Amino acid sequence: MRPLSSLILAALIVPAAAFAQEKVVDTPSGRIKVETVAGNLDHPWALEFLPDGRMLVTERPGRLRIVSQDGRLSEPLDGLPQIYSEGQGGLLDITLDPDFQENQQLYFSFSEEGEGGAGTAVARGRLVDNRLEDVQVIFRQQPKVSGSKHFGSRLAFAPDGKLFVTLAERFKFDPAQDLTNHLGAVVRINPDGSVPQDNPFVGRQNARPEIWSYGHRNIQAAALQPDSNTLWIAEMGPRNGDELNIPEAGKNYGWPVVSWGRHYDGTDIPDPPTRPELAQAIHHWTPVISPSGMTFYTGDLFSDWRGSLLIGGLSAQGIVRLTLDGRQVTDEERISLNQRIREVQQGPDGAIYVVTDESSGEILRLTPAVSR
Length: 372
Hints:
This protein is mainly beta. The protein has helices at residues 6-9, 100-103; strands at residues 21-27, 30-41, 44-49, 55-59, 63-67, 91-96, 105-114, 117-128, 131-140, 155-157, 163-166, 185-189, 211-214, 219-224, 231-235, 242-245, 283-285, 291-296, 309-313, 318-325, 328-336, 341-346, 352-356, 361-368. It has two helices and 24 strands. It has a five-stranded antiparallel beta sheet with strand order 1-2-24-23-22, with no helix packed on it. Strand 20 (318-325) and strand 21 (328-336) form a beta hairpin. The two termini are 31 Å apart.
């Protein structure tokens, strides 16, 4: 769950009667009711709860909407910058400023076109009624390159107010090992986009000072672990080899030098243990799950899930639930929803909310099914 105010935690539980469609799915840990909160969204990408219980939802083609507690969609909000919405690019993640209740400020990532091609950017603006005002781009991935694949990205505020931005290597492979660019990196910035002076590469020649860690491929899942305040990410591998990582300051996570997968043309890639000097994954998947969106569950509705890591799966078509013991994955459960899941969030009511990656995408709400 994103850092939220006490008001959000006390928000009203959404009445089940507000949702028109529901079904029950059987999972290894019990039966789950799945309700459709809202539909007719064009490739929804990210979800964020407002303090009053409403939701912000991004659509990849470049629209931001507000969803009421009974599932009604607003018109697209005005004030967004120009967005490059080709291929995997578009309007991506969104998160609230930790002081949102005071400043009404939110942050979002998006694909931006410019000289040389396109890249991932981050902007902030104030939510005023049904529009964004004072929008300012605070970070631009450098350099912009050709192509429409692998933009990342997720946003996560740490308790110290620093903003983590997960990126991708724009399907360019080798630049993920080059510190002179932001491709294949996790970056860490101040809320205004400036560079924290304790970043690992500050003052190092031929290195971008925003970089926190590098050697990543395509990171579309990130969350802060509540107890440790540690950033966890899940990134997409090539053919096989999706990874769960805890990105540490200054470390190299190996892509494309090593991987648990193969290149798409079948060419082998050395396995990570062949390069012990590189940071190792916490967990990896073959076949892939195509992770996108994740959260640590802290609620009461699914009491047995408390402390679990919930990851949205595109190719897995559901949620992957990991049981953890410190930094170790001790068990894995698949909650099949038969739809590509792009985002997963815990709601203020303790329910699990996911968005489906479709041209007519939906917001779904998961709660324990009551026996009758």
